[in-house]
Design goal:
Largest sheet: 6 strands, mixed
Structural class: alpha+beta
CATH class of the domain at 316-390: Mainly Beta
Shape: globular
Number of helices: 7
CATH architecture of the domain at 316-390: Sandwich
CATH topology of the domain at 316-390: Immunoglobulin-like
Strand order of the largest sheet: 5-14-9-6-8-7
Number of strands: 21
CATH superfamily of the domain at 316-390: Immunoglobulins
Distance between the termini: 60 Å
């Protein structure tokens, strides 16, 4: 059935005796956009970010007449692609005229709230993310091995060795924030030391009332946090960046037709049916550049980690086996396999193994001295194996 605000749905706003305020919660915004680093607005659909890909190295000189060695430094490109988030809300003009409130004024903030929800879902969990965007934060953390079993929530899984914060630190980053489901608050309050004293207490002086090792915890209440994928996400949020191509724009339409996206059938003719429509459009993109650091020169780590739900999300192994193009193919050690931004390096057996949820991914395989290969990988309900041949440059 077409989506439309009917008179019955707006009946509460058309009654004769009505107070002058509507009882409702305050609209929520995107929690990710509040924590990540905002770049200058985009001037085109795609923005290129150069990131450090290879670090120079210094060498000791052997004796007074020893030779000084040379070193290299290299850069790679990370792209931010702007995608459009939009919605049209049709309303009959008669309903607007008879309402005791500004219906458009009430609908608009709720639409913007819905956009914030969609941004958080796509960036953090990969839910309904645009195909052109890189992998979400959870997927990137999973490939780096920064997932911690969440069967039980205790001190060690959060702050101990091998806990979520330690996972981020081992890759060379400092945790400056965390996102958690509302239910995590009770779990934190319930953790006690050997003497029965609560370990986690509300930090009344901090940015929020809850903190892990000094990093504030936020509990999104815009409906975006998916507890079936994670219980807690921590990381260096300032390493994630986003840019706006088109800020939120609102337009009232009173002419034109609205079609079904699938069948192309005309659903509403605004002029003929005396209707107006609220159209809201927003365009943005994001990226997780992940430059080379002294603790992660291969860029295979991640500045985020997460605590799994008690029953972890099902993933499938995707194994890439990389060989050269010689008459008797030789396994290639040290080739980089990048799947939608998540990066691994092949070992001596020429393989790199990813753990991916169902979906379609773009893989890029490269190594200095060889041509780069790009493949499309589809993951369903079984493990995937992919043989890759790299051709030596002429």
């Amino acid at each position: 059935m077409p989506n439309l605000i009917l008179r019955e749905q707006a009946e509460a706003l058309i009654q004769e005796q009505l107070i002058n305020t509507i009882q409702q919660d305050i609209p929520k915004q995107s929690i990710f956009m509040g924590l990540a680093k905002k770049l200058p607005n985009m001037t085109s659909k795609q923005t290129r970010i150069p990131v450090l890909d290879m670090l120079p190295m210094a060498y000791w000189v052997n004796g007074d007449t020893g030779f000084k060695q040379t070193s290299q430094q290299a850069w790679d490109n990370v792209y931010i692609t702007a995608e459009e988030l939009a919605v049209i809300v049709p309303i009959p003009e008669a309903v607007v005229d008879d309402a005791s409130f500004d219906i458009m004024g009430e609908v608009q903030p709720r639409v913007i709230e819905a956009m914030g929800l969609r941004v958080d879902q796509a960036v953090v969990f990969g839910i309904n993310k645009p195909a052109s965007w890189d992998a979400d934060i959870i997927t990137r953390a999973r490939q780096a091995g920064n997932n911690v079993a969440g069967t039980t929530v205790k001190y060690d899984t959060l702050l101990g060795e091998g806990g979520v914060i330690a996972k981020v630190e081992e890759d060379g980053y400092m945790v400056n924030g965390g996102l958690a489901a509302m239910g995590m608050r009770a779990k934190l309050r319930g953790i006690k030391d050997d003497d029965g004293h609560p370990i986690f207490k509300s930090d009344m002086q901090g940015a929020t009332q809850y903190a892990l090792d000094g990093a504030p915890l936020y509990f999104p209440d815009n409906g975006s946090f998916d507890t079936s994928i994670a219980q807690l996400v921590v990381g260096d949020f300032k390493k994630a960046v986003y840019a706006i191509r088109q800020d939120i724009t609102v337009k009232i339409l009173d002419q034109g037709v609205i079609q079904d996206p699938t069948t192309k059938e005309i659903i509403y003719n605004l002029a003929q049916q005396d209707m107006i429509a609220l159209r809201v459009v927003f365009r943005m993109g994001w990226a997780l550049p992940n430059p080379a650091t002294r603790m992660d020169s291969d860029r295979t780590g991640c500045m985020f980690a997460y605590l799994e739900p008690p029953t972890a999300v099902t993933t499938q192994t995707v194994t890439f086996t990389v060989k050269d193009d010689s008459a008797e193919p030789v396994l290639i050690d040290g080739a980089y396999v990048e799947v939608d931004g998540a990066r691994l390096k092949t070992g001596t057996d020429g393989t790199a193994v990813f753990n991916l949820r169902a979906g379609t991914y773009t893989a890029k395989i490269k190594k200095t001295g060889y041509t780069t290969v790009t493949e499309t990988i589809t993951v369903a309900a079984a493990a995937v194996t992919k043989d890759i041949t790299l051709h030596k440059n002429a």
